[in-house]
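From the pipeline queue, job 12 of 40. The input is one protein chain; the requested action is below.

Action: predict structure.
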Amino acid sequence: MKNREVADLFDRIADALEIKGETGFKVVAYRKAARILQDMTEDVETVARDGRLETIPGIGEGLAKKIGEYLETGTMTKYREVMTGVPESLLGLLEIQGLGGKTVHLMNKELGVKDLAGLKRAIADGSLAELYGMGEKKVENIRKSIGTRERVAERISICEAALVADEVIAYLEKAPGISRVSAAGSLRRMKETVGDIDILACGKNGKEIIRYFAHNPNAVRILAEGDTRGSIVVRAGEMERQVDLRIVDESEYGAALLYFTGSKAHNIKLRGLAKDRGLKISEYGVFRGTKRLASREEEDCYRVLRIPWIAPEMREDRGEVEFGLAGRLPRLVETGNIKGDLHVHTRASDGNLSLTEIVDLARKMGYSYVAICDHSQAAKYAHGLAADRLAAEIDEIAALNRTLKGFRVLKGSEVDILADGSLDFPDELLGRLDFVVAAVHSGFKKNVTERMLKALENPHVRTIAHPTGRLISGREGYDVDIDRVIDGAARCGKALELNSYYDRLDLDELNLKKAKEKGVKITIGTDTHFADGLAMMRYGLGIARRAWLEPGDILNCLGADALLGKRSSLS
């Protein structure tokens, strides 16, 4: 569906008009048209083909022509016209939480702000706080948003890094003479953001492997091409990312992989342990004097230190070495333990997949169930389902389940927690569902903690979605006391969600550990809206493993019968 694409163009036109100083009917018309298109459940291309664009409330002759032009040509003359004279540096400021087109226009007109540097100066000298409609509190929130975005900009999302590394590794596996290859560094440890994309390999004739690596067809620049090390810049979408490759001898591969996986703190802990045992550990192996005791496999290096192999995700010096020495390492959750995805959207709300398409994709993932959790009616921006539409979806899922063998579609909903803590649907409708995910989507600063605690007390709620509301790329999240929410979940016997969407990964690893300590179960949902989204379970699992979660901590590791049988108590 092109609905969202056209809506985004109209929103962008409204942004540009506001930056230019427009505040009247034109801006309102484009904003309204964008909302209408986002809320439409029918494909705008179908409507245009049938000549019905002007029958859409709020879409007059002028807007209909613009939509038709874009659908036919892929461009919009009005968009190009409005964007003329609007510097990209000003448009970029709209990506900062708390800034809209009107504010950017005022900053530009009254304070001479033209870019991020100018905005920072206006914050520092106090002039932004004096701007009409601002004030100290709003300025502080903008300052925090800038800081968050800049910290993230220095690193790469785990999703982007993993996809780049996957492509490079797949290419390298075809290199002549290569025998082993793996990602290393923070990517292998599955941190939510990654500083560098490091790859380690071994094989015959390292120089030839480096040459093969350097001539990757996706490489846009070669930074280094030596005998054992290479570095290239590859194109990843609209971005360029550096990838570094190191070749080691096969006999030293395990020790090198251990060393280059890190973390630095974990490696320091191992060096101290080795010293206490009269040994020395390095990227070349574990030694007693000049005699090498282990190096080929990571497991060998740990064994010589008298501890079992420690999963890469745990290597942060957070007690993992001590647990290993005591023989108490957890059995971390693995991909094969996951029986289903507990948060998926269809095109009934704001997804682009049908029920049957989701079932086919979930089966390919090896799942035995999937929970359909379309948005509720308050989420109008996401085509939220009114009560009658949800009832119809429940009936549709029931009919589909009667045709399926070895697979079950769970009837669910991502139900908004309203301003007073009540839910967006009545209990009698919620009672027809298998899996209720309660979520905050508005009023991020309005008593969120109490709203979540009240929602947890509802007998039909199974889990709270993305409980802190943060976006890694630049949103601070809700004003929520997450410790109280964790305590509330424990008290009510309810679960909390680990949202696997790569820009959320919410709960994060530290809060997941707190939840585990309080006995709170975790649900993992990809919150997917598109076909590739189900694969983001990979990132949620990575964070779960970093939090030391085991299969018994995660409800997705239960079969459908056991999951549905635990509706009254999830503790």
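Job complete. Residues 566-571 have pLDDT under 50 and may be disordered.
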